Amino acid sequence: MRITHVDMDREDVLASLGPYWPPLPGALVTRIAALGIEHGAVAVHNADGQPGTTWWAIDGLVVPQAAGPAPDLPGCPQEWTPQQDNTAPPPTPVAPPPAL
Question: pTM higher than 0.85 for the full model?
Fold first, then answer.
């Protein structure tokens, strides 16, 4: 397995991630910061001479995207994002402003 990386500005990665950021509650994310990667494109090549699969990395994380979750990468722990607390009461709605 070979990993390649193209460093990018955080804002450019955010523009590319679209609906995949922030990750959904209960999503499997990979902490790729251990490889010195904060923001950019990360490609994982499973076979020499073959194209790899590319994911966006932001804030040292690879979150699930159209390519799916990142594979288990050496030295990069995977973890689940916290689940949403469904026991909390719903927020109080804000009253609309009075009509003029």
Answer: no
